[in-house]
Amino acid sequence: MVPKKWISAIVLLLLCYAGCGLCGKVLVWPCDMSHWLNLKIILEELTERGHEVTVLVSPQSFIIDYSKPSAMNFEVIPVQQNRETAEKTLDDFLDIAANVMPTLSLWQSAMKLQQFLFQITGHLKLQCESVVYNQSMMKKLQETNYNVMVIDPVLPCGELIAELLEVPFVYTLSYSMGYTLEKYCGKLPVPLSYVPVTMAALSERMTFLERVKNLMFSIFFDFWIQQYDTQLWDQFYSDALGRPTTLCEVMGKAEIWLIRTYWDFEFPRPYLPNFEFVGGLHCKPAKPLPKEMEEFVQSSGEDGIVVFSLGSMVRNLSDEKANLIASALAQIPQKVLWRYKGKKPATLGANTRLYDWIPQNDLLGHPKTKAFITHGGTNGIYEAIYHGVPMVGVPMFADQPDNIAHMKAKGAAVEVNINTMTSEDLLNALRTVINESSYKENATRLSRIQHDQPVKPLDRAVFWIEFVMRHKGAKHLRPAAHDLTWFQYHSFDVIGFLLVCAATAIFLVTKCCLFSCQKLGKTGKKKKRE
Ligand SMILES: *[C@@H]1O[C@H](CO)[C@@H](O)[C@H](O)[C@H]1NC(C)=O
Ligand SMILES: *[C@@H]1O[C@H](CO)[C@@H](O)[C@H](O)[C@H]1NC(C)=O
Ligand SMILES: *[C@@H]1O[C@H](CO)[C@@H](O)[C@H](O)[C@H]1NC(C)=O
Ligand SMILES: CC(=O)N[C@H]1CO[C@H](CO)[C@@H](O)[C@@H]1O
């Protein structure tokens, strides 16, 4: 008995030792809401492997619960706490997102999003200042000697802290507005003939007019719409670093870009060796449901269930919209589990139950699940892909129309416009994805692609973070494009040089010709005279 115990103790010790031999310190600059849910999975895996993870968190976070005991450390940013303003900002955003953006065209919706992001710039700047200009805070971070920073670049500042601390950093994101960050800061090639620009909601096979739209959107994002107030941040970063620089230049120092999609979702496209596609890393096999919920699910019999969620951001809809949705749901033979915090709609059918919160992954993985009605957030879409569930998309803002466009192109979803839809539209969409077997088949095919990978996405994400820790970066994957100017990158200088050469050659040849012609002419005339 005793020796056995000893053996296990020694094995445990060895394991610990082996694990901790490579142990490092990770500093994290996160983003709130659904982004955090995804990042948290990576951070938990890192702590499990013995790394020390510290998260820089704003006191105004909504779902990053830094007061709960956790294996991670939380360093609260010393910014003036103002809960009410934060709540109001979020409410404003939710209102715009749920009620205003769906009524706008994609362009206008993108402009609205930019307007909102610009509005909160002042607050973001304050938050950033409270870290980088707080000497005791920076000294503390410096003295900890972090090995790597993991950054969500939705909100700026993380890369500035990394640069000041001289720590290599890894990005984690889905994609930026119009791919501008990846394209200009990460140097990711985006051939517009077959790579649809994000927020244009196009697929990879574009007609001529769609390619026109794609190019127009690309120009629109290059020159008009930006995720950040670039001028302000360029100045801020230059001041903080004490040398002229730009936000994009600092962002370009990212060692690895962990992209939250994979080839089940993406259209095949060129990418760089320091871009790793790790979509679906948060997906897990389903766990058993709570008892009450399981009973409800089982009561659906052969018909099965439909899962409905508009994500964590949308809490309530207008009465009219909620009633319209509820009356469509009441007409299907399936039972419906609807995550909804608003007032109970009057037309709610007996087959529909409202929940404040649902274990979405466990429900989607349930064998009785027939369809998923979703707003098209990346996390939810990936859970549906993982479990092979066809979708009805009701996208509202940001990347959601794009995500649904991808699923539509892969034959696993039907889209309904939440702004203009009638009860009948939603009902038809539901009937289509449930009754037409191709949707289920295509969703199952995506699921097989997600499951059949040489290395699981979470392991790849963690591998590259650890790689950066071990080797103090991943410079061998960094394309030399970062050191070129835009005209060198497109070889405009070489083309110009060759054109000048060609022009000179043509000029010289014509000159020579003319000269010899004249000469010949003259000698000819001379001869004639003689
Ligand atoms: C600087 O940060 C420390 C925490 O590291 C905090 O206690 C202090 O109040 C901050 N100073 C200012 C001026 O905000
Ligand atoms: C949602 O609820 C909030 C507060 O309960 C309310 O102010 C808002 O008008 C509601 N939104 C809609 C679209 O009904
Ligand atoms: C599927 O089709 C059958 C008949 O073809 C119909 O009775 C059923 O209601 C349809 N399913 C849904 C979800 O509408
Ligand atoms: C986009 C795509 O692959 N769609 C497929 C969905 O499934 C049907 C039937 O299996 C195929 O014919 C489609 O090509």
Note the main attributes of this structure.
single chain, 530 residues, alpha/beta, Rossmann fold, six-stranded parallel sheet, 13 strands, globular, transmembrane helix
Tell me what the structure shows.
Its main location: membrane. It catalyses: glucuronate acceptor + UDP-alpha-D-glucuronate = acceptor beta-D-glucuronoside + UDP + H(+). Keywords: Glycosyltransferase, Membrane, Signal, Transferase, Transmembrane, Transmembrane helix. Pfam families: UDPGT (PF00201). It comes from Felis catus (Cat). The protein folds into 2 domains: 287 residues, Rossmann fold (3-Layer(aba) Sandwich); 161 residues, Glycogen Phosphorylase B (Rossmann fold). The chain is α/β, with parallel strands linked by helices and 530 residues long. A 7-stranded parallel beta sheet has the order 3-2-1-4-5-6-7, with helices on both faces. Helix 17 packs across helix 18. Bound molecules: 2-acetamido-2-deoxy-beta-D-glucopyranose (NAG) (4 copies).
Radius of gyration: 28 Å
What does the oligomeric state look like here?
A: single chain
The total count of helices amounts to: 21
What is the fold named in CATH at topology level of the largest domain? Rossmann fold
Bound compounds, each kind once, are:
2-acetamido-2-deoxy-beta-D-glucopyranose
Beta-strand fraction estimate: 5-15%
Q: Tell how many strands the DSSP assignment holds.
A: 13
Runs with pLDDT <50, length 5+? none
What is the name of the CATH superfamily of the largest domain? Answer: Glycogen Phosphorylase B
CATH-defined architecture of the largest domain: 3-Layer(aba) Sandwich
Q: What's the helical proportion of residues?
A: 40-55%
The helix-and-strand class reads alpha/beta
* CATH class wording of the largest domain: Alpha Beta
Strand arrangement, major sheet: 3-2-1-4-5-6-7
Question: Per the principal axes of the C-alpha atoms, what is the gross shape?
Answer: globular
**In the residues, how many domains can be counted?**
2
Family: Belongs to the UDP-glycosyltransferase family.
EC number: 2.4.1.17
InterPro entries: UDP-glycosyltransferase (IPR050271), UDP_glucos_trans (IPR002213), UDP_glycos_trans_CS (IPR035595)
Membrane topology: Single-pass membrane protein
